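Review box. Two proteins, two foldings.
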Amino acid sequence: MLLEYPTVERELFELNTQDPTVKPLATSFNSTEDHLNPDISDESVLGFRVGNLRFLLAANIFCEIVDQNKVSPLPNVQPWFSGVLNLRGDIVPIIDLHILLADGSTPLKNRHLLAIDKGKKTVAFWIDGYPQMLSPHFTSASAPDDLPDVLRQAITDYSRQDQHLWLTLSLDKLFKALSVHTVQDKD
């Protein structure tokens, strides 16, 4: 026996902000939304640390700290390619810049996985500590001499703030530089 339900015509609901009883609710909702999604200026940057180096990304790029227990290693890849993880159905590559920089000095308990971007463009890096929002007050700096070539190709700017050198990282350039060096020879 097939049940039939009566069809109901639906009207689109629009919030009437002119109604004095509705207006405080609308204002309250907007202020809550603003609190949950703070207005990040285009000039703000997100900073994270890997070993002795500090990297900058635009603050409007989606980033999150993810559970490091989900990492699946892959065979026959370079040591800096830690593996992949499944993040909401997307396979995310994990890059260990510590190994790429030959700086394995950070204890594993202080490291976190920082997933950057959304969907198929997501990549994760092992970082030291937690990322931080930084004010845009930087002075220009020159490139350090000891940067590996692969990383040097991915840096778009060198800046200084509070005695620290910050490297502005281009993810697209980093992927292009790393894609050439992903598979390890089986000698």
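Next protein.
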Amino acid sequence: MYLHQTATPNFHINVRALGSIALGVIMTFGLFVLMAKLVEQDQVYVAPEPLPTIGPITLQLEEEVTVERPPLKPIEPPTALPPSPPMIEESTPNETFSTAEVPTIGVGTEFILDTSMGDGLADQQATPAFRVDPTYPVDAARDGIEGWVKLSYTVAANGSVTDIQVLDAQPKRMFDRAARRALGKWKYKPKMEDGKPISQGNMQVVLEFKLDQ
């Protein structure tokens, strides 16, 4: 009788504990289910964007193009050049010397002096030994212009012509350059005093420029 009374309270205690545990498990499970539902409601489903469709790729092959070169033209022989215009013939100007010591001579005449003379040549004036013809200016020859140039100069001890000056000319400055250039190439046998060559100044000459008729 004593044993039956002590075992009954323990049985009631165990049943109550098991019921509490089962209730806790059910509540916990229900809480998890509720939380899962709430999470599902908060999430927004985003549908993935459809991938672009790529159609079939068609490769177009370039057609072979044949380029035809034009036929080469035959090289024509060079045409004959037109005949050159006739050259203007330069006329020979006539020179007139204004000094008594210098004789009148033809233009371009080369003088060969005889040096075998005796003492009579111990004192003598300068004499021309070689002269150069002046060149007729092209412009003057083309326009039919004639004229003259009067020059002064000095014959040096070595026979060269120096200190050339234009004293007068007609027309002015038309023939000056040609006259000066030609006179500068002249050669003289210098003036002699006591058998020694010396320079002789104040020499003058007039160079005339005339066209052949």
